[in-house]
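User: Sequence for TraB/GumN family protein below. Tokens please.
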Amino acid sequence: MTKYIQILLILITILSCKTEKTTEIIVIGTLHKPEPNFNSEILFNIIENIQPDFILEELDSSFFTSDFRHKNVSNSNERMASEKYIKKYPTTKLRPYEFEGRNQYRINNGSRPTDGLTTKLIDSLNNVGLLSDTEAEIHNKYKALLEPLIILASKSPENFNNITTDSICAKRQYYQYKMLTKITNKRDEFATRFHTKPNGEKISYRDGYQLADDFWDLRNQTMAKNIMQISEQNQGKKIVVLCGFMHRYYILSELRKLTEGKNIVLKEFYEK
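Assistant: Structure tokens for TraB/GumN family protein:
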């Protein structure tokens, strides 16, 4: 009798696995502000074509009420599109997935504004010919990698939501956060210029830029983990993730690792 019970339990397990609905995650790279080629109406139509159960936005919880409604819609493509979608399809749920307190975190540790101050200083040094040939080559490559992305971002959304654009974004961000540090870590100008943090402590441009480099990884990895947590808590649902398209490559790379062996698929919004 025990043997038959064991067989029955095995069969129940197999059947339940077969009937378990697959979770779908659709990561959509966006432009945050309205442009002729990408605005809230275009994004709304994309979302409506998908018919998601959840819409995840690149915001932290401070932008939402306790019942996950927007406190302020503003002129953000993502917020305007998702707000319109929720009004039309009220059973759809909104959720934040951003690193909590992102901006204040960067201000407090000094990575902002030293990140911007550092890149401006590199640009100035290059403009007056003070960088070495190797340093100038790094900086020129960093600047050049932005040009094809500007062109792609002026086209239809499919053009900045594909593996080719993702690879250009990845290379550009690699140059910004890994290669530019080869300049900042070597030259004295970045060790002898300082910014004063809110707590009164001084931080060098060199150290602040290194913190910005570290935070790029921390932020994207945290966002992917937050997306994964929501997905695992809502198995079998269709989940749209809205992110600035420069983040897409990193989030997708992390999600591919986190979803391995799980009943979760990553899809493009234009895939059937």
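The longest strand covers residues 23-30.
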